[in-house]
């Protein structure tokens, strides 16, 4: 059962619709349905603003990202891109290149913020997820899809190598270099069944409604647990993905030398001894 309420006014955006899906669970929808949620400049900028706010918002513990209308997203807005990428600013090649580099770094930030936000982010994909959409979902912690979903690393088809995260994160997500190369070089569509079997998504639902119900259920489950535990786990999973086991173990030891001193540990242990669920424990905000 889905219940929605309006999110706080600070989440008022033009291209993103943000609602309070459940207690401590925010729903962020890419919201340009008539343009198939193509990512225009406003959307790239609002992603940064939205996730920076969520990161600081102690009332929120988990985020679900989905697309409004027919599909998740058609990727970058090709009309918007034409201005910025095809006509870089600058008096000479060096200055144009310098400007272009900064522009690309800025685009990257739109999805880096998802990773930097310590709250888990669940991507819920229906219909097409193209180009920039793959950049987005690979920066999320958990990916779900509906049976009609399809995925396409489309960038070579528009004459470019993907530069906003897919080439860096997709190999880590599916752990199959051959399949990644195939998807990237051919730009072929990957359907929902294959996305499930290769590990791009962890669950497949019959339709969008069932998927969103499943996503909110999962998000509520996560939100009921200690935010010190959950958010610490996210930050350490991401750190460990990018470092050796030795460095990861060192990092968690340093992390937990303070975080194990949380009240959440005592409260949770006591609840476990009393055969209560974490849902019954009133954890402080984080
Ligand atoms: C530094 C840059 C970093 C980022 C790089 C990112 C790269 C990428 O994302 S590469 C991928 C680019 N995307 C595409 O090539 C997809 C193009 N669109 C389509 O193939 C189809 O539109 C699609 C299969 C997604 C949907 O088909 P459908 O029949 O359902 O809808 P349409 O009638 O085609 O489209 C409806 C309106 O949406 C507009 N639109 C769709 N995609 C885009 C887009 N990517 N950019 C801008 N606008 C898009 C389309 O023009 C229609 O608008 P209107 O005519 O005003 O109704």
Structure in words:
49% of the residues lie in helices and 15% in strands. By secondary structure, it is an alpha/beta fold. It has a 7-stranded mixed beta sheet, sandwiched between helices. A 3-stranded mixed beta sheet has the order 6-8-9. Helix 1 crosses helix 3 (93-116). Ligand LH2PNOKW is lined by residues 35-36, 38, 70, 74-79, 85, 104, 107, 128, 130-132, 154-155, 158, 163-164. The site of ligand LH2PNOKW has 22 residues, from helix 2, helix 3 and strand 6. It comes from Scyliorhinus torazame (Cloudy catshark). One of its GO terms (molecular function) is delta(3,5)-delta(2,4)-dienoyl-CoA isomerase activity. Keywords: Acetylation, Fatty acid metabolism, Isomerase, Lipid metabolism, Peroxisome.
Produce a short descriptive summary:
By secondary structure, the chain is α/β, with parallel strands linked by helices. 49% of the residues lie in helices and 15% in strands. The longest helix is centred in the middle third of the chain and has 24 residues, at 93-116.
N-end to C-end Cα span: 27 Å
Low-pLDDT segments: none
- From the spread of the alpha carbons, the general shape counts as globular
Helix content: 40-55%
Our Rg estimate from Cα atoms comes to 20 Å
Gross CATH architecture of the largest domain:
Alpha-Beta Complex
Helix-strand string: EEEHEHHEEHEEHHEHEHHHH
Specify the CATH homologous superfamily of the largest domain.
Answer: 2-enoyl-CoA Hydratase, Chain A, domain 1
Number of helices: 11
Secondary structure class reads alpha/beta
Order of strands in the sheet with most strands? 1-2-3-4-5-7-10
Q: Which ions, cofactors or small ligands are bound in this entry?
A: ligand LH2PNOKW
The overall pLDDT average reads: 95
Number of domains: 2
InterPro entries: ClpP/crotonase-like_dom_sf, Ech1-like, Enoyl-CoA_hyd/isom_CS, Enoyl-CoA_hydra/iso, Enoyl-CoA_hydra_C
Family: Belongs to the enoyl-CoA hydratase/isomerase family.
GO biological process, one term: fatty acid beta-oxidation
Pfam family, one: ECH_1
